[in-house]
Amino acid sequence: MASGEDDDPVVQEIDVYLAKSLVDKLYLFQYPVRPSSMSYDDATHLSAKIKPKQQKVELEVALDTMSPNYCRSKGEQIALNVDGTSFEDSSTYSIKMMDKQTFSSIQATTNTSRYAAAIFRKGELHLTPLQGILQMRPSFSYLDKADNKHREREAANEAGDSSQDEAEDDVKQITVRFSRPESEQARQRRVQSYEFLQKKQAEEPWVLLHYHGLKDSRSEHERQYLYCQSMAGSDNTELVKTPGEYLSMLMPPVSEEKAVMPMGPSNVLSMAQLRTLPLGDQVKTLMKNVKVMPFANLMGLLASGTDCTAVLRCIQQVAMLVQGNWVVKSDVLYPKNSCSPHSGVPSEVLCRGRDLVMWRFTLDRFVLRKEVAAVIKLPPEDVKDFLEQMSASRINRGWEFLLPSDTDFIKKHPDVVQRQNMLWLGIQSKLEKVFNFKKEDFAAKKEPQPELRHVSGEQRLKAARENAASLRKEPGARLPSQQRGGAGVQVKQEPLSDSEEPMDTCSALTNGSLNGYDSPGLSDGHNGQSAAGPSHDLQDFVSATFRKHFVLTLSEVKRLFNLHLASLPPGHRLFSSISDRLLQDTILLSNCKQIFVPFPPQTVTTADEQKVFALWDSGETFDKYRQVVYEVFMKNYRVRRTVVQTRLGQELGANVTKADVDRVLKECCVSCGGMWYLKGTAQS
């Protein structure tokens, strides 16, 4: 120790004083984008303001517009973009030139307990704790103001070209939704959100400040408060601490802070956190997130070695058995005193409606949405939510249960299956009383089975050859299986013997039939449509749709077609196997044409959305008005009303009235931001 002390002798002892006069007011400003050799000490500070709670400061500093490094043209252009050509008191730049710059602060650190401002004088060191450390960076809020001015001018110009009649909005349906009570988890997420913090920051008012330069007399006066004011007072006590204690005070040991688990989204489940829960809570959490799950998958998600009997006991408390799979109970998803996030319907009503959907899937693989909606009488959003939780939509067939029937579970656990069947009988009786229906009301209508007859290989081969010969003689003739009702006889095939000649399947498929069955896409035994042309019902649907909407994209036609299919009675197979090619051909055969129109730039569209069809010739005299509009939109994706009106006057003469222009725009176009777009091409 002696040698160590000789190597590091004490050179000087300095008294340290703690100054408290500015302890709540002293901030350290840093300028990270400015070198230290180019300070703002000599710059003219125009204004200053602060939000004390947020420790946010804004300074306005004048720019030297006479400097050779200043570009006057750029400064004038920026001022013009921000303030426009008007002279107002609220203008950002009063001399029509960018003559000032704003600095806005961000906190360099939130904990300043270890930082202080020190000043040394006559062998004494005076320390003043810092209230905050702020980094001052240039603010570009004037660019936002310029963008807002540009949008306002563009909106004013577009609005000036549109007539007063265009401002009259059509009557729109308004959906009223009731917000459900906010949970504690949702409240914490809202409080931590960026939008909430921005709103909270905006609520605190600015406090105006007066800036005093470095050499100002007021600055010299305030600088004196950096020294301890009570040098001879009772507060000056000698520091009586051992070197170890003093070192601990300077560098306290780092305490292990409790790790705060970040709050994840409600639909994200951490398996590590899940394993820490009791078994019942694990099963409930899994089922609440997955909603439909086979028992084998559930066992795979739980820890290895988990007792199967215990899991069965827990799963029956939170889920019901549907086709051998487990579906979470309705009261678990919609607890008491909650409501629908879509419509605000109480949880009791939601549970009854969802139980009926679950019960329907215990009877059949497919469920029709309109049948369920007609019974439970809930808003469409809630009905769709029920179905999406446990099924998937299938075109022309309804909603199919998500998972295949788990026959293995049904065989291994007959006691559980029997108990679940008893529970479903009780639920069924309650549902029948509440909704006033009978089980027979949902019984599937059985179609008459086709007659079975045996046909040998020789007979099939002979029939195929005869059909091929008849087609060569009469090219327009159709095979027997292509005639209306030709699918009413089902052929039960017998294997060919070794002595029999194999059938020429290529010719059979080419002619549209194979072994008595219609090949898909060529003919259909129910509606009689073939590759030669569409059925009358399909053509009637297309014609009626375009007489109502006039202009449609292919994707919109397909959407309306699916809605039409959903409105048909259960089991109706009028429009089976309708391909996109057949649908387009039907449109073109219904006095419609495809219009090749440009789309707005940077608009992402699918291939079906880019195919635009329009009613070209409906037999009305007004067809020529619509045709002129179609030709206008073949060159521009958006036009003004005056352009359409002028073009109609040029093509059709001076007898074009304002009512005619209104009608053709309403039939073929949509208005957005004062401009008119062809239906299906407007930006969403």
TrEMBL record:
Superkingdom, natural source: Eukaryota
Protein name: DNA-directed RNA polymerase III subunit RPC5 C-terminal domain-containing protein
Biased amino acid composition, Basic and acidic residues: 146-156, 445-476
Biased composition (Polar residues): 507-516
GO aspect biological process, one term: tRNA transcription by RNA polymerase III
Organism: Denticeps clupeoides (denticle herring)
InterPro entries in UniProt: RNA_pol_III_Rpc5, RPC5_C
Pfam families membership: RPC5, RPC5_C
Limits of the DNA-directed RNA polymerase III subunit RPC5 C-terminal domain: 445-684
PANTHER family noted in UniProt: DNA-DIRECTED RNA POLYMERASE III SUBUNIT RPC5 (PTHR12069:SF0), DNA-DIRECTED RNA POLYMERASES III 80 KDA POLYPEPTIDE RNA POLYMERASE III SUBUNIT 5 (PTHR12069)
Example of a GO cellular component annotation carried by this entry: RNA polymerase III complex
Chain positions covered by the region annotation Disordered: 146-171, 445-535
Lineage: Eukaryota, Metazoa, Chordata, Craniata, Vertebrata
